[in-house]
User: Which sequence fits this backbone?
């Protein structure tokens, strides 16, 4: 038996077998002294004069703010292998403190506070008045903790504030070591959850659970009772009311949910990410059999409330920064509630009554008379947490402003593919929740990428996949990819939201202003609304004009193709006329025969017909009869045979006439026609101008110019593609980054430098001096022809079967090395009449035999 127990036994007259409570009292005192950093053994000096009363008061505060498991250790933990959740009651703790005082009477009998006491059970007067307050405080704390927040072993809970960046120095490498608590905020927890989320874990469900507890000021274990049957879309506030049910009571109250400036605190983003990425609205037959179909988090239904609280606490600790364990011990599931309520209470002009209407705390005797189902009562505290004016009406983002209803519909369907709850389906009572979730995810799309590592985070990945599956397009920017459309829509939705938010803020300010100020603010709100409507109308007109411009551009492209086809047809018609004229001349030189031959009528073309009609008619005839010499025969009515010399032999009644063979007449859109079309397009435009146009429209690939998806309004795609490839090959990565928008800088100067780099590189590859630079322009077609010529040279050196457009660019020294390896084969080629560069030399060209014609004997006259 130790000194404390012996002193207590001496005072009370009890033996060792009846002082187990004294040991528990001693353990309580030891835990208190350890928590407050006091020496293990007490001295008389600590309780000298009125210090004894102060000591007991501090001990009461400690005992009324912690949970003590049965047979607790000095660290307030349950004994090893203990499976009970039972804890020491307030009444029992009162007895422990009383035993500590009685122990002091035996150890320090001359203390003035009790030396006059006569009976063993007598206590100082100050303890008699203090224990009443202690019982009330301790009972209230334990009643609250018992609902779902009881956490053994926590030496005081710290609030998890939303954002502490202004309270720390992130640039200081020793900041975490010197000020660890300033690095423990909810923002950091959210970002770490999103960065670590993938398709093999449920991090985004954990994010939704953290957010719902935070914005609802709720106890962590109570989210287990969140049920879609209690959700509704408030038609007046135009936000969802998710309701909140307390554990172990019949208390429930409304819980309106609003947006937030930062995506990680936005209810709609966190729930939308859960629905989109983790199939949060998918339910199976197992869920229906277990009755958890309408539970917001079905996975929580199989565990008790305290386990839910511990689960949330573990999520928080696992995602806090690398701080000491002693700091982590301060944080639990209760930290979310503490942080949210403390943050809201500190807001200017908010009242405890407004905070209590959202947190569920009792407010004196008026609580029974408050309509807890009135969503308006919970709105001021929600605004305070979000940093809005207390009286501001909610503002939610909308996708109506993007002007593509079919695309929006397809996108939402692909974002939320697995919805088993009818209320969330299109036309259901909670369908608006999904619409706002989709709009919020798109509104914060760029911010999420900036905070969570670009395109690799799971939220962005799932949203981009949905955009591709829906194949969304922007009428104003038809050349954008679905991923680029999402970025553009994000800007539009954010701008519209900001405009409506400012109007709502001005209206809210007018409700608390006096006299002239209120009148001025009302006028400002009205003016702002008018400006908003004008901007919306302007945006619609711009979108409509962009769509019309795209249609005009498409028609111009079609017109260019038709012109090229017409030009090609005219050329074919001219060749046909030349061939026909040659045939007529040959026929005119044919000797007159002694007998009359059957007359053959040649199909003529009325001179009054247009060239276009004539070419179409002849094209149809040649498509039936064939091309080349066969076509000529069909048009002239003679039998044709081809000799070995490339001439055409025609039989005209025993007389053989040799005429040059007519050239083949291609009836397709060939290189010649395409060149004509290019010359009438934008081929003569400078490369720098086209580059700036694509940059201004955000149509360049963000990292690789050569991979740019060239829009349809560019007439010469292959020419531009060659120029972009050469820009990547010759230009600097810094200028490319500036033009693509990935880095800050003067885009005009960067584009000019890229064009100069292309021109200089071509001179180098062509083996020319840079002084000749002024002889060459910077047009797309001009650069394209020179690049293609160089690629053909590379193709020949590599003996490649690829088209020149698919040949990769190489440095000149690499090309010369390749050509050097072909010297031996080149000599052999020259021996066979093939000169340098694969060209046939005139001196070694083998002579072709003269065309031979076939003479036929005169046919017998017809009877």
Assistant:
């Amino acid at each position: 038996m130790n000194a404390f127990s012996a002193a207590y036994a001496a005072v009370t007259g009890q033996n060792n077998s009846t002082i187990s409570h004294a040991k528990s009292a001693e353990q309580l005192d030891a835990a208190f002294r350890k928590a407050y950093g006091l020496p293990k053994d007490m001295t008389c000096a600590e309780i000298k004069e009125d210090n004894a009363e102060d000591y007991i008061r501090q001990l009461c505060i400690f005992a009324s703010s912690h949970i003590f498991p049965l047979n607790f250790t000095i660290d307030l933990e349950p004994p090893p292998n203990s499976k009970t959740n039972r804890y020491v009651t307030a009444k029992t703790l009162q007895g422990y403190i009383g035993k500590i005082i009685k122990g002091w009477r035996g150890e320090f009998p001359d203390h003035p506070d009790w030396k006059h006491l006569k009976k063993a059970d007598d206590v100082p007067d100050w303890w008699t008045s203090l224990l009443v307050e202690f019982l009330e405080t301790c009972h209230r704390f334990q009643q609250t903790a018992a609902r779902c927040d009881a956490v053994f072993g926590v030496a005081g809970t710290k609030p998890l504030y939303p954002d502490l960046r202004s309270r720390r120095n992130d640039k200081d490498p020793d900041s975490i070591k010197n000020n660890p608590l300033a690095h423990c905020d909810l923002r950091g927890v959210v970002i770490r959850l999103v960065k670590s989320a993938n398709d093999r874990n449920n991090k985004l469900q954990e994010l939704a659970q953290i957010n719902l507890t935070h914005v609802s000021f709720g106890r962590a274990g109570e989210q287990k009772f969140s049920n879609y049957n209690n959700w509704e879309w408030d038609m007046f506030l135009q936000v969802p009311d998710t309701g909140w049910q307390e554990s172990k009571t019949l208390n429930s109250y409304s819980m309106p949910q609003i947006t937030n400036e930062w995506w990680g605190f936005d209810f709609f983003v966190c729930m939308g990410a859960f629905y989109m990425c983790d199939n949060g609205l998918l339910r199976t037959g197992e869920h229906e059999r277990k009755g958890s179909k309408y539970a917001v988090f079905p996975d929580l239904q199989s565990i008790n409330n305290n386990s839910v609280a511990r689960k949330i606490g573990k999520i928080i600790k696992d995602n806090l920064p690398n701080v000491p364990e002693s700091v982590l011990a301060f944080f639990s599931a209760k930290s979310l509630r503490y942080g949210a309520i403390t943050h809201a209470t500190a807001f200017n002009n908010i009242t405890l009554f407004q905070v209590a209407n959202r947190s569920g705390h009792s407010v004196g005797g008026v609580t029974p008379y408050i309509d807890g189902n009135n969503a308006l009562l919970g709105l001021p505290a929600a605004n305070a947490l979000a940093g809005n004016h207390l009286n501001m009406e909610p503002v939610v983002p909308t996708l109506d402003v993007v002007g593509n209803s079919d695309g929006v519909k397809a996108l939402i369907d692909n974002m939320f593919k697995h919805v088993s709850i009818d209320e969330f389906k299109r036309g259901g009572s909670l369908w608006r929740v999904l619409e706002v979730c989709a709009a919020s995810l798109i509104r914060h799309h760029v911010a999420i990428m900036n905070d969570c590592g670009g395109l690799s985070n799971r939220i962005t990945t799932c949203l981009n996949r949905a955009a591709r599956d829906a194949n969304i397009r922007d009428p104003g920017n038809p050349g954008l990819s679905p991923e680029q459309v999402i970025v553009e829509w994000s800007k539009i939705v954010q701008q519209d939201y900001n405009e409506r938010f400012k109007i709502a803020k001005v209206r809210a300010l007018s409700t608390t202003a006096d006299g002239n100020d209120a009148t001025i603010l009302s006028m400002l709100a009205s003016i702002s609304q008018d400006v908003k409507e004008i901007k919306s109308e302007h945006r619609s007109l711009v979108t409509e004009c962009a769509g019309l411009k795209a249609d005009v551009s498409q028609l111009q492209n079609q017109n260019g193709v038709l012109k090229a086809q017409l030009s090609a047809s005219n050329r074919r018609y001219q060749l046909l006329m030349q061939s026909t004229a040659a045939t007529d001349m040959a026929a005119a030189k044919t000797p007159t025969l002694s007998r009359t031959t059957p007359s053959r009528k040649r199909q003529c073309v009325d001179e009054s017909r247009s060239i276009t009609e004539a070419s179409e008619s002849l094209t149809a005839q040649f498509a039936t009869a064939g091309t080349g010499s066969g076509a000529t025969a069909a048009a002239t009515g003679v039998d044709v045979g081809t000799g070995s010399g490339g001439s055409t032999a025609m039989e005209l009644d025993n007389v053989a006439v040799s005429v040059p063979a007519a050239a083949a007449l291609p009836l397709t859109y060939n290189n010649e026609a395409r060149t004509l079309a290019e010359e009438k397009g934008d081929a003569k435009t400078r490369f720098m101008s086209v580059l700036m146009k694509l940059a201004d429209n955000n149509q360049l690939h963000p990292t690789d110019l050569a991979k740019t998806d060239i829009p349809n309004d560019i007439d010469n795609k292959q020419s531009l593609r060659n120029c972009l490839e050469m820009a990547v090959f010759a230009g600097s990565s810094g200028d490319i980054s500036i033009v693509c928008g990935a880095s800050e800088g003067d885009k005009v100067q960067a584009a000019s430098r890229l064009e100069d780099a292309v021109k200089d590189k071509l001179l180098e590859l062509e083996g020319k001096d840079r002084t000749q630079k002024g002889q060459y322009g910077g047009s797309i077609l001009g650069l394209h022809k020179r690049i293609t010529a160089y690629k053909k040279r590379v193709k020949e050196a590599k003996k490649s079967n690829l088209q020149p457009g698919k040949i990769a660019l190489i440095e000149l020294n690499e090309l010369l090395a390749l050509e050097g390896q072909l010297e031996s084969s080149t000599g052999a080629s020259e021996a066979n009449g093939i000169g340098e560069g694969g060209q046939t030399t005139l001196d070694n060209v083998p002579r072709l035999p003269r065309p031979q014609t076939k003479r036929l004997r005169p046919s017998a006259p017809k009877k």
